[in-house]
Please model this.
Amino acid sequence: MFEANSAPEESRVDYQKLFSKPVRIVEKYPAAEGVDLKKKHMVCLNWLLSETPLDLETELALGFLDHLMMGTPASPLRKILLESGLGEAIVGGGIEDELLQPQFSVGLKGVSDDDIQKVEELIMTTLKKMAEEGFNSDAVEASMNTIEFSLRENNTGSFPRGLALMLRSMGKWIYDMDPFEPLKYQGPLKELKARIAEEGSKAVFAPLIEKFILNNQHRVTIEMQPDSEMASRDEATEKEILEKLKASMTVEDLAELARATHELKLKQETPDPPEALKCVPSLSLQDIPKNPIHIPTEVGEINGTKMLQHDLFTNDVLYAEVVFKMSSLKQELLPLVPLFCQSLLEMGTKDLDFVQLNQLIGRKTGGISVYPFTSSVRGKEDPCSHIIARGKSMSGRAEDLFNLFNRVLQDVQLTDQKRFKQFVSQSKARMENRLRGSGHGIAAARMDAKLNVAGWISEQMGGISYLEFLQDLEKKVDDDWLGISSSLEEIRNTLISKNDCIINLTADGKNLKNTEKYVSKFLDMLPNTSSVASTSWNARLPLTNEAIVIPTQVNYVGKAANLFETGYQLKGSAYVISKYLNNSWLWDRVRVSGGAYGGFCDFDTHSGVFSFLSYRDPNLLKTLDVYDGTSNFLRELEMDNDALTKAIIGTIGDVDSYQLPDAKGYSSLSRYLLGVTEEDRQIRREEILSTRLEDFKEFADVVEAVKDKGVVVAVASPDDVEAANEARTNFFQVKKAL
Model:
């Protein structure tokens, strides 16, 4: 029930009036020293679309238009910008409609200073061309099917649907509009489809481009210029401001500041009293089911191939995975695998160019993806490593889905040099973005690569090693394209085979039965090559502390060790302890006291790697000291039954996380691949539910291995790394990444 808002009138957000003429803003951003900055510029064109509320049909039509222009690799605005060679990657998120007034943004990064104007002109001429010529019928049908499929499926992933609907409603409600309007898509969707059928897509979409973009003077062009000296200038300016402020303070002022800082730190590090914690409503252990969530799984064979089936209600949607073993692939080809997967979906076949193939997938299915899957397997030396083709469609389109699987996997021609070069540039730009914005993930991958084989494989396909590979590959595409194309084909010939293939299906029983004949036909078309012996990938990175240096004002600090190699035998209590450390010790010391945006630990129970990580952290060595203090924290820990119960229930909340049918089927497949049995799940659950305070204290000796034997990887600023190496002589080996 939505009640009237009694908040004061000041909380109301007024509409911004549209500008009468375009605005241009030129700013600088900090760039790395000692690198060529010529192609490091960025430019983005941005429009505010309306100064009055839009009706639901117009909002829906703008969403379709956004998908038509930019939603897929085959979308004309996205395709033309990337194929222009003027930049490395798209910036701007297209149409954003979560605020009071919708916006449209598009641009490029990795642009030469000389090409800024060309990018702006290309965007405007492409928009004019789309308004004049419209979109072809296959593109419109593909976008219509993709968006309607998404609306009807309402797949919110691991986020509960109820909460997703609430947040969708709040997008209107907080601006004093009808909170139920965003949920009523069926009527406007029907009207929009009828308009397109009656008037044609050009009559529907061309006026939107003209009104909201081309004839809209509220255009803000942002140009960002690289400056290798900006970071040091900003730091010097900040230091000067602080020194002046300190000089202006009296002895009494400084004493009061020290006292207040000490008092704040004491409050931050003092746990909440038990009586305060008891005020928070919670479940009891008696409310928690004693058995794991059951996912119906039937393991059988079809045409001599293993098949897993999950009889679940899916609202007439079929979810399918096709799994191929990767263990026979040559080690030197591993870094090419992500680009191979992208090529399968973004190059053409003999009879379809990549645009037509992309549109065909959009018209017939809810989407297809291809990606590598790698993990350690507990108790085994060899990792689990596969390529997974994943797709979904309405059950009545099952034949189309498996025909498209076959086209993607076998018919795509891996010979388009120009598009492959774009893939390399895009991937390099994405990796550079990850370094700046998600450095903790890069640090985690690097530590894993030092501690286990599966981690090394993953880092070759998604870490610093992969970025270095892409930087070299970008130079080689023109010089050795035949060799690269041949390697892509070798990957396909090695991986795509009926032998050791696994099919995973999730749908209701009737649709599973009806789909079998299409699976059988698909399998008959796969190559039946003789089994190839697995390749030995017994490789790891050197076990040395490493600092990956980038231009940044914050750090990402990691430390990890393999607990299984110390003799530790996995217990369910480790899940509870890790969760508790995240919510108490690491939260209080790394985030609250230390000022980092986040601090957490993770225990990979397949590999045994226990890792500490921080996110956007102003500290480096201080954070490592917190990690090293974890064992003492656990030894000295005192907690009552209420606190222990909450820790256990929180852990069960993670174990029993919300899953929709597609995620349930995929989780069951993952457990099958990793050899996790229902008996294993039951044992772990019982161990979690029976966790005691003594388990925390015993785990202190286990986690001591991270302090004593752990390897450190930090993605950090040059100054912080230099200071760390001065404080602890040669503590880090330094690798410059950007």
In short: The CA atoms of residues 274 and 640 lie 8 Å apart. The longest strand covers residues 384-394. The chain has a mean pLDDT of 93. The two ends are 52 Å apart (CA to CA).
